[in-house]
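Extended Data, panel c. Modelled sequence:
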Amino acid sequence: MAATKKQAKSSFLAASDQDYNLWALFRQTRDAMIKARERELAEHGISSIQAAVLFTIQDIGAVATPAEISRRLVREPHSISGLLSRMEKQGLIKRTKDLPKRNMVRITLTPKGKALYEFSTQRATMHEVFSVVDDAERKVLWDYLQRLRDKALKLAGIGYEMPFPPPYTELED
């Protein structure tokens, strides 16, 4: 069946917009990487966002709060709140009222959460995906992604710098 003129025009506009095509490629890459990571984590019953939360809590340490987790993961607070509730029911995290500030909650990993965090640090899928770029390409990619992320954060009205990941120059070889 032949495409209608409207469909043809729509396809042409999408194909001729390099920024849109790059966006689509970036999104497809991101989504495929997440699906691959999900498959890796599924055997332990956690999702990639749960693994990211476990990592973030471990990284922040004893002063982890829902608000800071939300900021670092660039997620809405209500989304993180619901996710933390589910993770608490699974026995992965514990919420504790902050003693000096009674209205603040601290988030810590339970032993089960720490064990899953340790498993999630193996990251075989991530290493396999990034094996297709050499060290020089990796440095360039890092720079591009950092610049794109920082511009997107600015356009989104997010006025703070991300504490993780560190600049490429601060990483160990």
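The chain has a mean pLDDT of 90. This feature is highlighted in the accompanying rendering.
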